[in-house]
Amino acid sequence: MNQTVVLYPSALVGHVGPMTKLAGAFLKHGYDVTVVLVGYGTTATDRTAIEGIVASNPSISFHVLRPPPAPPATSSDSKHPLLVLLDLLRRCNEPLGAFLGSIPRQRLHSVVIDMFCVDAIDVVAAAGVPVYTFFASCASCLSALTQFPALVAGRQTGLKDLGDTPLDLLGVPPMPASHFTEVMLEHPEGEVCKAITEIWRRNTETMGVLVNTFEQLESRAVRSLRDPGRNMPAVYCVGPLLAGAGNDKGKDGVDECLAWLDAQPDGSVVFLCFGSMGVLSAKQLKEMAVGLERSGHRFLWCVRVPAAAAGHVDEHSEQEQEPELDAVLPEGFLERTKNKGMVVKSWAPQVEVLRHRATGAFVTHCGWNSVLESVAAGVPMLCWPLYAEQKMNKVWMTAGDGMGVALELEGYRDGFVGAEEVEAKVRLVMTTEGEEGVVQLRARLRGLRDEAEAALADGGSSRVDFLRFLLDVKNLEVGGRGAAHPVNNLQILNAEAP
């Protein structure tokens, strides 16, 4: 009977998706996998997305925790969403413990939690099961964020007061203080900042961290994380964990998008997509359209209509109706660009688009899944970060002493990118010769594309790291919890079977 790995993401759909990709790595090595869900998301959109993830992964078992109800809220309660999420996860500790107790101990291989589920560490430890962290973002972010508790210790003001002052952090290029996530800029003694500080402190208390990256992409950050002076647990690079091509087959718009790309010349299309939550203002969409049109390049643009524009009500149906695209774009834009561009609402088959021979560049919000997909396809990027850790990712992506895989769209710090900037940067990144920096960028991406594939192949760096992780867990079983044992390559190669 196979051993079972339990994966425990938080209630956010952006965390459930990457966990299911990690599940695939365990399945390939002969383990059974159960993903523990904290309900089916906190919003209707999340529920729909998570239900889709469950339906499309029949090889994975899913178990839904039923937490006790929260105390009745008073009219004065207005908790920050992060605190609401952490409270929900704490209430799930008891049902999580009961679920782990229902599985025979000899069948439990390990529990892998995501970064928000740190209160589960004690529950898993009490069950006598090895507990690890899965970090779905990059090693550079992990390096910076784990230094955050020390950075704010003893401060009398929040990091917001530092503005764009560059911070010299271990393992990464200098980063403006303002590029930390919003909650990390608040006063260190504030409830939300204290909560996120505790999260980053406790994330280093598991037995190791599985990171969705590959060493060749972030060698500087990985070396720093593994430096004994950092006092980090074991770090395993196990990526890039990506959705496979063809996963979007049957979804509306797939055939139309790909058929349009089939008709375009090689490397001639700039793809613009800002993720499942990336909504730009109507004013910004119009400005962006002007820049695209002036650039003269072919484009495939995924547009999410702003709520303010989408919020009109049909008098007969009494339902909110999404307006047509020409209602949020410049007058005549779609007609004028119909021979050079394609605009789709909300969604495009991103993996297939990035891997298509016609795609020459990617304008992205810098979400880590999107970055990895573009790197694995060898496509250079233009950075337009919007929220969460995306500004941090932008720093690592564009720095010559970082990843060096992208160029920056100026104006994102002020929340508005002008048409002139869009036009200039699209023209620059689509240049195939003459611009030395862009030529080098494209050459680096071609190399990283090959290295991403090699990292997951037999003998590749990520494959070896994952096998090392499996062997470390096996050694815990042999030597007792917390025992350390030297490993060699022969042991790693023999560690595949559960």
TrEMBL record:
Q: What InterPro entries would the database entry show?
A: UDP-glycosyltransf_plant (IPR050481), UDP_glucos_trans (IPR002213), UDP_glycos_trans_CS (IPR035595)
Molecular-function annotations in GO: glycosyltransferase activity; UDP-glucosyltransferase activity
EC top class named in words: transferase
Question: Gene3D superfamilies of this UniProt entry?
Answer: Glycogen Phosphorylase B
Keyword Transferase annotated? yes
Sorted keywords for this record are:
Glycosyltransferase, Transferase
Pfam families, per this entry? UDPGT (PF00201)
Indicate whether Nucleus appears among the record's keywords.
no
The EC designation for this entry is: 2.4.1.-
Q: Belongs to which family?
A: Belongs to the UDP-glycosyltransferase family.
State the name under which the record lists this protein: Glycosyltransferase
